[in-house]
Write a structure and sequence with these properties.
Blueprint: E1 3-7, E2 10-13, E3 18-25, E4 34-39, E5 46-51, E6 58-60, E7 68-73, E8 78-83, E9 92-98, E10 116-117, E11 121-126
Parallel strand pairs: 2-11
Antiparallel strand pairs: 1-3, 3-8, 4-5, 4-9, 5-6, 7-8, 9-10, 9-11
Length: 127
Amino acid sequence: QVQLVESGGGFVQAGGSLRLSCAVSGFTLDNHAIGWFRQAPGKEREAVSCINSSDDDTYYADSVKGRFAVSRDNDRNTVYLQMNTLKPEDTAVYYCATDDVMGCSIARMEPKDIEHWGQGTQVTVSS
């Protein structure tokens, strides 16, 4: 059974940092890409970042480039999203997701078409 569990969210002041974790089970990271998405109140879910199985393909939304960094630890079956210089507009529920697609094409999929999601973790950035 495929499972993804996010953790690491919280409340932080603008300019601060958080590291989100996505622990996976039921599959191995060495043959699946993981996408990070977020959904703010009243907005659609959007792709934030992605890392593929061989670390040679990553994706960052323009709004987070230079501030967020995605990484994997295959031994721990965990993907991380390091978020620095956080802004109030980063406030959202953050989700990790995976599907049986090539590389970071998951970041270009419609969220409704992605098969496996975690439960989400809340990130709140105060001004």
